[in-house]
Amino acid sequence: MPSLATASEQNSNAFGGVLLLLLPLLLFGFLIWSQRRRAKQFQQAQAELRVGQEVATTSGLLGTLVGLDDDTAEIEAAPGVRLRFDRRAVVPSSVVQATADRPADREAEQAPGQVDQTPGQAPQEHPDQTPGQPTDRPADPRRDVDGREG
After folding, report:
1. Is 91 helix (H, G, I), strand (E, B) or coil?
2. CA dihedral 83, 89, 95, 96 (to 10 degrees)
3. Reported pTM
């Protein structure tokens, strides 16, 4: 009977070993697939570039595409200011806006503890602060929300 127990232990150990090998391979395969998909989207966006289109460069310059050939793109950044870039450094600004509008990016830009505030809106008071207490100093931890000691 002990041989059955050792055989089942060997099978579970073999399964664990195979699992340890497969998980990193699956992760690596997913990373490669994701990168290829992103590269294909970038190439498609570059193939659709047209003169007169609003574009952005990989360095963040925004402007209007005024000239385009196989290797270079000419961008008008301001009236009368034309700049030449390698075509591979130029993408439609709609692609840049689509990636910047993702909620995960906005949350990452917000500092921890920072209150999300609409422009023109008064800053929100911290719940531990008593009304009218200056916001530049921390609230007294010995006081409750109503300002009473407790």
Report:
1. strand
2. -70
3. 0.47
